[in-house]
Amino acid sequence: MLLGCTDCDLFSFSCPVVSQNLVTDNVSVVEGEMAIISCRVKNNDDSVIQLLNPNRQTIYFRDMRPLKDARFQLVNFSDNELRVSLSNLYTDPPQEAYADITVLIPPGNPVIETQDEILSEGNETEMTCTAMSSKPAASIKWMKGDKELPGKPKVELSYDKMYTVTSRLTLTVSKEDDGVPVVCIVDHPAVKDFQAQKYLEVQCKYFCSVINN
User: Is the previous residue joined to 93 through a cis bond, with omega within 30 degrees of 0?
Assistant: First the structure.
């Protein structure tokens, strides 16, 4: 800790250290022990001795301690000396904390591709939903009406460390599915309510029979 001593005339407003009359000494102390700081005036010229901390805050002015720091205690005060003790001298170890910054890159608009545009009831079909170029990788789920359908995701990492996710859905359609939307919902921390949908178009099977008279 650096401490400054100044001597100044009682009627001065500021107290620069310009007097050749002021004497102080550098102090070395073992951690945890007490240091003694002494500011002395060689010849009494009606100056006032003041002890300052590195922030230019007054620790002692004469025998008064304006700074509320109990580590400083008055040892001696006279016209020629201000002597102060400083206890509990410990060096504070540096404290460090680290924070990670994650840059989120949202995917592009999801795209649904279908194997068949027009479906026949009872047939199986495939759909894929793709969310491209995101960081981190997005997740995809499928909904048909209010029912969640299982998809098979595939994650690809590009040369620029961006993720493309493709989910493949296989389903068998019935006549009740005609006009029902199949929704691909993309979940990613950078976007909300990101989805695409495809309405099913299902043709019913009709049977013809020949009646012989």
Answer: no
